Amino acid sequence: MEEKQPLDRVARIQADWHRERPDLDVGPQGVIGRLHRLADRLTEELCLVYRRYGLSEGEFDVLCALRRAGEPYERAPGELAAHTMVTTGAMTKRIDRLERAGLVTRRRSRDDQRGRIVALTEPGRRLIDEAFTDHMRNERRLLDLLASTEAETLETLLTTWLSRMEDPSSPGGE
């Protein structure tokens, strides 16, 4: 006889709702609730690495966006905001902090004197190269909690779901 696993937090919440509102289908909580809890846990685990380098999650994202730009490792603040999906106001605060830390510089754009360009400094490049290497090691550790076939299946499912949410006209989207 197969041993039944104890209920996790999401299953207990679903059971409570099923008892209180048997007229509702609480099945979606099984996926959405677990994804939400998993996202919170993953964020905690990822932030451990960022803090090791004296960075917040947002600052790490800015440095990564600059490093991914390739030499000379610079972008306009608006470009950085688009590459990190934050508002320009939030981007300004991140850039201010990174500039004070000597990890980035700001200068006027050669093309538009009103515009600014943010660039990685050499210490910033060295820091993000080291932090990103550590970050990838950490992500591997987290993903290795799954078998490789499970990770591949999950990536396929998440890619499909995300594409349908981002483009409702895609096949299967509403």
TrEMBL record:
Organism from which the protein derives: Streptomyces albireticuli
HTH marR-type domain: residues covered: 28-163
InterPro entries in UniProt: HTH_MarR-typ, Tscrpt_reg_MarR-type_CS, WH-like_DNA-bd_sf, WH_DNA-bd_sf
Gene3D superfamilies: Winged helix-like DNA-binding domain superfamily/Winged helix DNA-binding domain
Protein name listed in UniProt: MarR family transcriptional regulator
Pfam families, per database record: MarR_2 (PF12802)
Keywords per UniProt: DNA-binding, Transcription, Transcription regulation
GO molecular function, one term: DNA-binding transcription factor activity
Keyword match Protein biosynthesis: no
Record flagged with keyword DNA-binding: yes
